[in-house]
Amino acid sequence: xxxxxxxxxxxxxxxxxxxxxxxxxxxxxxxxxxxxxxxxxxxxxxxxxxxxxxxxxxxxxxxxxxxxxxxxxxxxxxxxxxxxxxxxxxxxxxxxxxxxxxxxxxxxxxxxxxxxxxxxxxxxxxxxxxxxxxxxxxxxxxxxxxxxxxxxxxxxxxxxxxxxxxxxxxxxxxxxxxxxxxxxxxxxxxxxxxxxxxxxxxxxxxxxxxxxxxxxxxx
Length: 219
Known about the structure:
The structure is a single chain. It is built from 5 helices and 11 strands. By secondary structure, it is α+β, with helices and mostly antiparallel strands. The chain starts with a strand and ends with a helix.
């Protein structure tokens, strides 16, 4: 199986520093791009992910890099032959450990107090494709001309089901408090050849309407 990947991390037009970070296979980067066809390895997991950092000074940048580096290392050690439930448990345990590391680093340095990061990832594991999500970074699937959000925002707006609530109040993230959870599930019951999966931080989803995203992906 091959994935054709186009990954971009850009500071945008508003901030001076970029707190988003991207993982493509073994590479973790920001302010750069990766594009090309990737032959998925049969003997080990392969992931594409985005972590969106938050926190004062440069703490958000540190948190997003820490999350993706630890995720990259942890996914490489996943056991073979896990069923869906077993994989979900392994990944949730890994992410809980990463959350603890982010919390500990934030508490150990006053310059990093309150640092955290959201995460969205697409994981290929032994012919199956899963998603991981914590926070408000999103996974969409574009199929047959229609864009559908696969992940669920861990936000106050989503929890209350009200569009009147500001969308930037995140209730769950790595390093974001004493409690933490990560959603793990199949990205699709069956992945089709023409499927396009879009992973994005709120730097895109908060600014570009979904109808416009559909138009761009259609092109």
